[in-house]
């Protein structure tokens, strides 16, 4: 491996973006407000499960772990994929730090991109799960009658078919400007998983652990209803507070064996995205000596913001009642280093692109006091994070 820094030229970024499309294995990760941006390309070694990774051997490992490894995926989905890249580009303070295996020449590799001609693209069809409302009503009944099951985060999928293939180069300018969220792309062969998630699963830097509870949601209204009014109603909603408190408590319990000095507030704040408001509790702690990044990640994943409570009963319910497996939707995506640093986000507000087909994902935390129609509206608003970007690209 050789390593050097270079300036973040506009051309360089453009070429890196084209390589995201061109290379068989590629990855992009930007944390909110661009604190960290990483591009990674080419596979030295890959893993299909984070259980098998020995993180001491490679300076950087990138990728994602699916939501539920026990469920196999359909052709529209992507499953766990981790790789140690041949080329990585880490972008901090306007400087690119490049790490590249000895056999590749950086400037010839960078230039080796072919430009594609732009062809008009159209949406040919949009297919929804027709019986989702019925299944949510059935779930609410189950939650009212079941003594044990408290919460199930129920997923929905929507399949969009386009007239032409979608690429990251086409989506890039729309994706990158959503700087309030993570922006994540993971490519394996002909599939891309793309996420604009606001939800951090875990970050570890200099022994400081950061995670967050994000659950309890209100959609922004078309009539531009005052933001603070929506936030106040959300903070006062018993259903959302209960949904949120379950998540906070569960995260703290799962982390407790591995950390010390917890810091978090017992009253949630609000996290704003362009489409939604969420109850939000940042949780900080200090990692205990000898604890590995992946051990923490495995302990946290999946949080009850994505599965439910109790976890095993919620997962069992989802395996039977969600129409399609999730693959990386609700999974853990990001990077980690052999110095026990790294960051993972939760793969929501996401889609899988496979040529002309785009599979969109959304889910909502269902409790016994949930209203079917408002959960439907909430998932519509969650779909719109990605849908509005696709629309922008198509109508250009
Ligand atoms: C499952 C999703 O959101 C989760 C994360 C934040 C808030 C949630 C909620 O309020 O239901 C969900 O638990 C999704 O966006 O598809």
UniProtKB/TrEMBL annotation:
Domain of life: Bacteria
Keywords assigned by UniProt, alphabetized: Isomerase
Domain Chorismate-utilising enzyme C-terminal: 131-382
Keyword flag Isomerase: yes
First-level EC class: isomerase
Catalytic activity: chorismate = isochorismate
MF (Gene Ontology): isochorismate synthase activity
Pfam families per UniProt: Chorismate_bind
EC numbers on record: 5.4.4.2
Family (UniProt): Belongs to the isochorismate synthase family.
PANTHER family documented for this protein: ISOCHORISMATE SYNTHASE ENTC
Protein name, as recorded: isochorismate synthase
Organism of derivation: Convivina praedatoris
Gene name, Swiss-Prot/TrEMBL: menF
């Amino acid at each position: 491996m050789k390593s050097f820094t270079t300036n973040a030229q506009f051309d360089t970024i453009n070429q890196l973006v084209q390589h995201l499309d061109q290379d068989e294995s590629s990855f992009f990760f930007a944390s909110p407000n661009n604190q960290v941006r990483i591009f990674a390309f080419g596979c030295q070694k890959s893993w299909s499960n984070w259980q098998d990774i020995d993180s001491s051997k490679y300076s950087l490992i990138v990728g994602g772990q699916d939501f539920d490894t026990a469920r196999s995926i359909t052709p529209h989905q992507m499953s766990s994929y981790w790789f140690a890249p041949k080329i990585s580009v880490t972008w901090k303070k306007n400087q690119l730090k490049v790490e590249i295996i000895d056999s590749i020449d950086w400037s010839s590799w960078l230039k080796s991109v072919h430009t594609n001609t732009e062809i008009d693209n159209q949406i040919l069809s949009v297919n929804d799960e027709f019986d989702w409302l019925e299944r949510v009503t059935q779930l609410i009944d189950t939650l009212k009658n079941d003594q044990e099951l408290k919460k199930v985060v129920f997923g929905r999928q929507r399949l969009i078919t386009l007239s032409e293939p979608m690429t990251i180069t086409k989506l890039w300018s729309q994706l990158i400007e959503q700087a309030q969220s993570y922006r994540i792309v993971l490519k394996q062969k002909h599939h891309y998983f793309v996420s604009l998630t606001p939800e951090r699963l875990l970050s570890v830097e200099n022994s400081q652990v950061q995670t967050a509870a994000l659950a309890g949601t209100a959609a922004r209204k078309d009539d531009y209803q005052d933001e603070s009014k929506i936030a106040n109603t959300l903070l006062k909603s018993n259903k959302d507070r209960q949904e949120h408190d379950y998540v906070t408590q569960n995260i703290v319990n799962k982390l407790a064996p591995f950390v010390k000095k917890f810091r978090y507030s017992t009253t949630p704040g609000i996290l704003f995205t362009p489409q939604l408001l969420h109850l939000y509790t940042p949780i900080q702690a200090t990692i205990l000596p000898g604890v590995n990044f992946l051990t923490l990640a495995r302990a946290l994943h999946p949080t009850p913001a994505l599965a439910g409570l109790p976890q095993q009963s919620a997962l069992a319910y989802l395996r039977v009642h969600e129409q399609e497996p999730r693959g990386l939707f609700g999974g853990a995506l990001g990077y980690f280093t052999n110095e026990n640093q790294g960051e993972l986000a939760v793969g929501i507000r996401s889609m899988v692109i496979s040529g002309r087909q785009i599979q969109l994902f959304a889910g909502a935390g269902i409790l016994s006091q949930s209203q079917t129609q408002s959960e439907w509206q909430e998932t519509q608003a969650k779909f719109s994070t990605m849908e509005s970007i696709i629309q922008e690209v198509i109508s250009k």
